[in-house]
Amino acid sequence: MKLNNVFSALVLASGLTAFGAQADQGSGVVTFTGSVIDAPCSVAAGDDDQTIDLGQVSSSAVANGGTSTPIPFYIHLENCSVDTANTVSTTFTGADSSVDGAVLGVTGSATDVGIVMTDGDSNTITLGEATAGQTLQNGDNTLAYSAYIIGGEAPTEGDFTGVTNWTLAYE
């Protein structure tokens, strides 16, 4: 009888161990972030922090003021209400380029290049200056931009990063 109780205890213990091992077959944490803003539109999730790949561009293609192919990027505005404001402008800021003080500078091993940004009408955006106001409609709106590389006299090869911050202003 004693052997039977020991055997029963072992079976019960091994069953609990197996159950415990199956209870956690993967785990993790989900953190939700965001902010509430005082604006007539919401900025679409993910559009507040974007990475735009300008590609691999030949140094000879951008030498002496040459440019790369423009790459589009967008800021999507959602649930807009034009009751309080019906236009929006964007101001981009960041380090200016040694190539041209009005365009975005870069860091990294590539030198003598800058990043030009344009609005949806292909107008060059000057750092620190608001873009022309874009008329809003109720609902969703898309602010369209493009960016491309411009070179100085003798760009050198290497990787680069350019970072701009943007601010919306509604009227």
Automatic annotation (TrEMBL):
Signal peptide residues on this chain, from the entry's feature table: 1-23
Superkingdom per UniProt: Bacteria
UniProt keyword annotation of Cell division present: no
Keywords: Signal
UniProt cross-references to Pfam families, sorted A to Z: Fimbrial
InterPro entries with a match to the protein in the record: Adhesion_dom_fimbrial, Adhesion_dom_fimbrial_sf, Adhesion_dom_sf, Bact_Fimbrial_Adh_Pro
Domain Fimbrial-type adhesion per the UniProt entry, residue ranges: 31-170
UniProt lineage: Bacteria, Pseudomonadati, Pseudomonadota, Gammaproteobacteria, Enterobacterales
Official protein name in the record: Fimbrial protein
Lipid biosynthesis as UniProt keyword: no
SUPFAM superfamilies: Bacterial adhesins
Organism listed in the record: Lelliottia nimipressuralis
